[in-house]
Amino acid sequence: MNRLTLNVRRAVLAVLGLVWLFPTYLIIANAVRPADDYDPSDAVKPPSSLGLLDNVSQAWDRTAVGDTLLSTLLYSVVSPAVAVLLGALAGYAIVVLRLKHGFAWFVVIFAGTVVPFQMLLIPLFVGYSEVSLYDSQLGLIIIYSAINVPLAALVMRNFFGNVAVSIFEAARLDGASTFRIFWRIYLPLSSAALAAVFILEFTFVWNDLLFGLTLSQSETVRPVWAELSALTTDVYAGTPVPIALAAGLVVSLPTVVLFLATQRLFTRGLTLAQF
């Protein structure tokens, strides 16, 4: 590759990178500017002063963000943990225990990712209303766990397929039960893969809007993004754009911090799964 081609490639990549980062710049620039300094026709210019803390304070006063943050943390921790455990059990049964028609069962589990989530909203709303799960934390934990199981099953199936069968056979000869082998040997071996899936699913649940908006309404149950979406409705029609952007920016920080703090573990876990 000659020098001219290399320079052209770098220039193209730089331009594409700037295009990709431009929306992020708009969000940050308008989230940190004072609310009364926002002008839609001049949104690209850098802020003349900083008003992020004031914007966040106003968003906090206008919504029940405090209550919804606790609920969102509950969903984001419990549901991925349940999904990861169920996915690991499914992968263990299919690959290690060689479940009869195992691949067919895997297809059935993974088929849940084929249906767009939007198609599930009305059936879920009707079903949850009939069994008293609508607007309940248990109801949201169940749906978040269910929609995350297929990904966990895929990753753990791939991971367990790379573990030597002799480990299972040796443990069985020593008298260990199938569940004890799973709990004491296979789960510890797959800790990195489990962590990678948990991080992905934590991020998905934390950032969810559709299910939270459809299946909840009270402040103690509603996820944080569903609560913040109220800032853009008719009820809060007078909410300046910087306030809504600042609230969204701050609420996004936990997932960013989690990913940055665990990026090595995340990369290692997905590498071990060998997609």
UniProtKB/TrEMBL annotation:
GO terms for cellular component: plasma membrane. It holds the Pfam family BPD_transp_1. PROSITE patterns: ABC_TM1. One of its GO terms (biological process) is transmembrane transport. It comes from the Bacteria. It is found in: Cell membrane. Its main location: membrane. Gene3D superfamilies: MetI-like. CDD domains: TM_PBP2. The keyword Manganese does not apply. It is a multi-pass membrane protein. Belongs to the binding-protein-dependent transport system permease family. This is Carbohydrate ABC transporter membrane protein 2, CUT1 family. It comes from Actinomadura meyerae.
